[in-house]
Specification:
The complex is a heterodimer of chains A (412) and B (229). Chain A is 52% helix and 21% strand. By secondary structure, chain A is of the alpha+beta class. The longest helix of chain A is centred in the N-terminal third of the chain and has 41 residues. With 229 residues, chain B is α/β, with parallel strands linked by helices. Chain B has a single domain, classed as P-loop containing nucleotide triphosphate hydrolases (Rossmann fold, 3-Layer(aba) Sandwich), CATH 3.40.50.300. In chain B, helix 6 links the parallel strand 7 and strand 8. Chain B is globular and about 55 Å long. Classes of the chains: A alpha+beta (412), B alpha/beta (229). Chain B: This is ABC transporter ATP-binding protein.
Chain lengths: 412, 229
C-alpha cells in the first residue's frame, strides 16, 4: 500500500507533466478504441450480411460437400426435420437449398446458369433473397394453374436469354439418378442487376428443384441461422450433436461459416490484421513520448533512488516502483479514455458516418460506416496501453534498479 | 567482545595509472558494540569513503569489510540492499528524506521493506517520533519541517528498524549550532541508555566532544586513535 502511495505521490509531483503524459496515452486509447469500433462494426456488418446472404451461420451437409459440392451428395430434408432443427436452442431460422447447374433456354438462345432450389418462405426469413427482386414478384412456391412452377432469374441471364416477367424458361441438366432433367418454368421475378453475384442464377422453389434433379426429400445443404455469426462455432458443436442423435448411422456434418467460406474468412482476417498495423504505429508513437517522460522523471530522481537503495530498497523493488508509476499513468489514461470513447463509439454504433458513395452489394445498400459497442473495443486498447506501459517502464526501471547508491547520492 | 564492524586492510582507489587516487589506503578498524565513534580528519581524508564502505554503499578496491562477522564486501547487490535494510541505519548530512512521504511514512518505509506488520510499524513509528521530539508532526512532509526537524526524522528513520549500527555522515553540518547540539544530545542519550552503536564522519567539535572514540584519518590512512571514558 505504501508503495502504491509512493507511486501515486511521485506521479503527482510534476502535475503538468503527468497531465500531458496521461493526455497522450488517453489520446492513443481513444483513437485506438474508436478505430477498432469502426473497423469491428464495419466488418461485423459485412459478415452478418455475408453469412445471412450466403452461407448461414452453420450448414448441415454430407462430408466433403462443403469442400467439393456435387449433385450426388445430399442430406434428407422435410418440414419435420426443419421444424425440429428450428426448435434447437439459439437457432433463429432454418432453410434447405439445392445447388447445381443447368443450361437455360429462352426464346431462341441458351445460357449456362446456376440453379438454386430454395424453400420460398423459409429462405425469405433467413436470407436477403426476397430483397434482391428488382422486378416482378418473389416466389410463391406453388405451381400455377397450368402446372408450371415459378422461377426467378438473374438479371444477366434474363438479358442474355431475352426473357422477362411471365416468360417461359426451359432448364436442361442431369438428374441425381443419371437421367436427363428438363422442365419448363414461368419467370416471376428478375434478381438484382447484371453485375451482381446472382446475375446468372435461376432460383426455383425447393419442390421444383427436387423434382428437376430427381432428389425427392433431399437437399444439398440445410442452412441454419443462429443468434449471430460470432456464436457459429458453439452452434456448430451443438448442431453436430443434434445431427449425430438424429441420424446415428450417418456421417452428416455441421460446419460453421468460417469453414464453409474458408477463403473469405481468411481474407477478412488478414485484412483486419493489416488494418491493425496502423493502430500499432499509433501506439508506438505514443510510447516514444511517454518513454521520454518516464526516463526524464527517473533521471530527475536519481539521487532519491540512491537514497532509497541506500536504506535498503532492493533493485527489484525500485524497478517495480517505476513500472507501478507508469501503470498508474496508463490506467488513469484508460479510465478517462473509456469515459470519452464510450459516447463516441455509441454514436458510431447508432448513427455512424455516412459514406460519400453508398455501397450496394447484391441489392443491399450500405450507406454508413458503423461502429461496434462491445467490451472488446474498450478492453483491447486498454490491454495494449497497459502492456505498452510495462514495456516503456522496462528501460527506466532497469536504470533505476542499477543505480549505485554512492554515485546516485552525489547528484543530490 | 565481537566487533560490530571490522575493516581489514580496506582500500578504495579511484582512477588508474597516473590518475590513481587512494581515497582510503589499507585501513583496519574495529568498532565495538555501544561505541560512540567519530571519524575525523580534514576534507579529502577519506572519512565519507570509509563510512560508505562500512555501510555497504561502496565496495573496497582491496581488503574486506565485516559487519557482525559477515563479509559485506563479497555480497551481491540484492544481498547488500537486504543487509543495509536489516543491519544499518543511515543519517545523511542533507537528511535525504523521501519528499513525497510524511515524517511517519519515511520512518515506516524501511519496516515495510522488512515485512513488519502494519500495526507494529505504526506503533514503533509513533513511539520513535515521540522520542525524537516530533510527536504531533507525524503527518508533515519534509518540506513542512525545519532542517533540525528533518534531521530528527532521519534519526528516527535510522533507528526505528533497530539496526546493529547507525552511520551518520556529517549529521550536523547543515544545522545551526543549537539544533545540532540538541540532536547530538538526543543521539548521545540513545547511545548511553540503549547501547546503540553510532559511527560519525565529522569535523564538528560538538561531536568530537561527545565521542567515546576518535579515529583520525589523513590521506586515507588512520593517523591516530583516541579512546575516551
Amino acid at each position: 500500500m505504501l508503495m502504491l502511495k509512493l507511486a501515486f505521490r511521485n506521479i503527482l509531483r510534476n502535475r503538468r507533466r503527468t497531465i500531458l503524459t496521461i493526455l497522450s496515452m488517453f489520446g492513443g486509447y481513444v483513437l485506438m478504441s474508436v478505430q477498432l469500433s469502426v473497423t469491428e462494426g464495419s466488418y461485423d456488418q459485412m459478415l452478418e450480411f455475408y453469412t445471412k446472404d450466403t452461407t448461414g451461420h452453420v450448414q448441415i451437409t454430407t462430408p466433403g460437400f462443403v469442400e467439393r459440392p456435387t449433385l450426388y451428395k445430399s442430406v434428407p430434408v422435410s418440414e419435420d426435420i426443419m421444424s425440429a432443427l428450428s426448435e434447437q436452442p439459439d437457432v433463429q431460422a432454418v432453410t434447405a437449398r439445392i445447388e447445381s447447374s443447368a443450361l437455360a433456354y429462352g426464346d431462341t438462345k441458351s445460357f449456362p446458369v446456376e440453379v438454386k432450389g430454395v424453400h420460398p418462405g423459409r429462405e425469405a426469413d433467413l436470407s436477403y433473397l426476397a430483397d434482391k427482386v428488382s422486378e416482378g414478384d418473389y416466389l410463391t412456391g406453388d405451381p400455377d394453374s397450368d402446372g408450371y412452377y415459378e422461377a426467378m432469374i438473374g438479371a444477366q441471364a434474363a438479358r442474355q436469354l431475352n426473357l422477362g416477367i411471365g416468360d417461359e424458361l426451359v432448364l436442361i441438366s442431369q438428374g441425381a439418378d443419371g437421367s436427363l432433367a428438363n422442365d419448363l418454368y414461368r419467370i416471376s421475378a428478375i434478381l438484382g442487376q447484371p453485375e451482381d453475384a446472382e446475375a446468372r442464377w435461376v432460383v426455383l422453389p425447393l419442390a421444383a428443384a427436387q423434382a428437376f434433379y430427381v432428389m425427392p426429400g433431399e437437399a444439398h445443404r440445410l442452412i441454419v441461422l443462429g443468434r449471430n455469426h460470432h456464436q457459429a462455432r458453439t452452434l456448430e458443436t451443438q448442431l453436430q450433436n443434434w445431427v449425430d442423435n438424429r441420424w446415428p448411422e450417418s456421417d452428416y456434418r455441421a460446419t460453421a461459416w468460417q469453414d464453409v467460406a474458408k477463403d473469405f474468412y481468411r481474407t477478412m482476417q488478414a485484412d483486419k490484421e493489416g488494418g491493425q498495423v496502423t493502430l500499432y504505429i499509433l501506439v508506438f508513437l505514443v510510447c516514444i513520448g511517454v518513454l521520454n517522460t518516464v526516463l526524464m522523471s527517473v533521471m530527475e530522481r536519481t539521487g532519491e533512488f540512491g537514497v532509497l537503495k541506500a536504506i535498503g530498497t532492493s533493485p527489484s523493488r525500485l524497478f517495480w516502483l517505476i513500472v507501478l508509476e507508469t501503470l498508474v499513468l496508463a490506467f488513469s489514461a484508460c479510465v478517462i479514455g473509456v469515459l470519452a470513447a464510450w459516447p463516441i463509439n455509441a454514436w458510431f454504433t447508432a448513427v455512424g458516418i455516412e459514406m460519400a458513395e453508398p455501397m450496394e452489394i447484391s441489392g443491399i445498400v450500405f450507406s454508413h460506416y458503423k461502429g461496434q459497442l462491445s467490451w472488446y473495443v474498450f478492453a483491447y486498447p486498454a490491454v495494449v496501453i497497459l502492456l505498452a506501459a510495462v514495456i516503456i517502464a522496462l528501460m527506466p526501471g532497469l536504470r533505476a534498479a542499477r543505480i549505485v547508491p554512492v554515485d546516485a547520492m552525489r547528484t543530490l | 567482545m565481537n566487533p560490530v564492524i571490522e575493516t581489514r586492510q580496506a582500500s578504495r582507489h579511484y582512477g588508474e595509472g597516473d590518475t590513481l587516487v587512494k581515497a582510503l589506503d589499507e585501513v583496519s578498524l574495529q568498532i565495538q558494540p555501544g561505541e560512540f565513534t567519530a571519524i575525523v580528519g580534514p576534507s579529502g581524508s577519506g572519512k565519507s569513503t570509509l563510512l560508505q564502505l562500512v555501510g555497504g554503499l561502496d565496495i573496497p578496491s582491496e581488503g574486506s569489510i565485516h559487519l557482525s562477522g559477515k563479509a559485506i564486501s563479497q555480497m551481491s547487490g540484492r544481498e547488500l540492499s537486504d543487509f543495509r535494510r536489516d543491519h544499518i541505519g543511515f543519517i545523511f548530512q542533507a537528511y535525504n528524506l523521501i519528499p513525497v512521504l510524511t515524517a511517519a511514512e519515511n520512518c515506516e518505509y524501511i519496516m515495510l521493506l522488512q515485512g513488519i506488520a502494519e500495526k507494529e510499524r505504526r506503533e514503533r513509528v509513533r513511539a520513535m517520533l515521540e522520542r525524537v521530539g516530533l510527536g504531533g508532526k507525524e503527518n508533515r512532509r519534509p518540506n513542512q519541517l525545519s532542517g533540525g526537524q528533518q534531521q530528527r526524522v532521519a534519526v528516527a528513520r535510522a533507528m526505528v528498524s533497530q539496526p546493529d549500527i547507525i552511520l551518520a555522515d556529517e549529521p550536523t553540518a547543515n544545522l545551526d549550532s543549537q539544533t545540532g547540539a540538541d540532536l547530538l544530545d538526543m543521539m548521545h542519550e540513545l547511545n548511553r541508555k540503549e547501547g546503540m552503536t553510532f559511527v560519525f564522519s565529522t569535523h564538528d567539535p560538538m561531536i568530537m566532544e561527545r565521542a567515546t572514540r576518535l579515529v583520525h584519518l589523513r590521506d586515507g590512512r588512520i593517523e591516530q586513535e583516541e579512546h575516551r571514558a
